[in-house]
Amino acid sequence: MSSKILIIGACGQIGSELTFKLRSIYGDDNVVASDISYSNLDIVNSGLFEIVDAKDYASVKTCVEKFNIDTVYLMAAMLSATGEKYPMEAWDLNMTSLFHVLNLAKDNFIKKVFWPSSIAVFGPTTPKEYTPQYTIMEPTTVYGMTKQVGERWCEYYFNKYQVDVRSLRYPGIISWKTLPGGGTTDYAVEIYHEAIKNKSYECFLKDESELPMMFMDDAIKATVDIMQAKAEDIKIRSSYNLAAVSFTPEDITESIKKQIPEFEISYKPDYRQDIANSWPKSINDSYARQDWKWKHQFSLDDITEEMLSQLRKKYN
Ligand code: AKB
């Protein structure tokens, strides 16, 4: 069965790479990229593109009807660090956009929804090591609160209205094509850019701040896999824990130094340190591995090798 896909937030870090991947699988004519502005020309110029305001129901619905969309990937969100600066705006964007898409599915305009959750659903009272799927969840960031409550709504729409919504709790995502914006895990992308450009980096987290992370290719694979899985294999309709690697700024520095021995890091923790302190160090994703056979590929050294070789081409 052919799928007509809409990606909302296609100009962002994950949305942009997801757009290219979905076009390669389903064909350029079947994948519509959309965002609030023309902020990523690679995406705007690479195929079907529409301006869509995720907070405006009419704007989303018009695009869905225009292209006969059956599947929506809702990638627009305000992340953890920016969300602490603009709490009401984060709540509004993250919740309003989710309700619009869930309601379009409930009212049969679309058939299937992907919505990303995050490790930010966990908080300081959650067990930090190998955090289980089902555990204490008392997030202390607005972003984490929107993701936690969003998960409840996803499960509610599945149980009450049979909406086929699928979700992953992404860790920090590392990629070289598009920069992340406004997250606490962004340091793990910035550090590679600075390693190539300046051979030094001032980190906004402390050396021992361990967080769950993942290379973009693994994140995209997980997203495609969960959406392609048989509905009966998706046993969790809130959101699945998802993991690949966990490391500290010190670990990533060691990994970079294997290739750039003169690389130097210094530490100047800011308000994002409190956010990092509230999140797990590592995640138990055994349900994803069991239910729809999730498997990651990239280790920290694999990520470093790929990031540095791609960014060398970009900057040199
Ligand atoms: C953030 O740091 O806010 C995000 C996330 C872990 O969801 N990258």
From TrEMBL:
Q: Where is the NAD-dependent epimerase/dehydratase domain?
A: 5-234
User: Which InterPro entries does the UniProt record give?
Assistant: Epimerase_deHydtase, NAD(P)-bd_dom_sf, NAD(P)_epim/dehydratase
Gene Ontology BP, a term: L-threonine catabolic process
| Matching Pfam families | Epimerase
Q: Name one GO molecular function term.
A: L-threonine 3-dehydrogenase activity
Per the record, the similarity remark reads: Belongs to the NAD(P)-dependent epimerase/dehydratase family.
Q: What is this protein called?
A: NAD-dependent epimerase
Phylogenetic lineage: Bacteria, Pseudomonadati, Bacteroidota, Flavobacteriia, Flavobacteriales
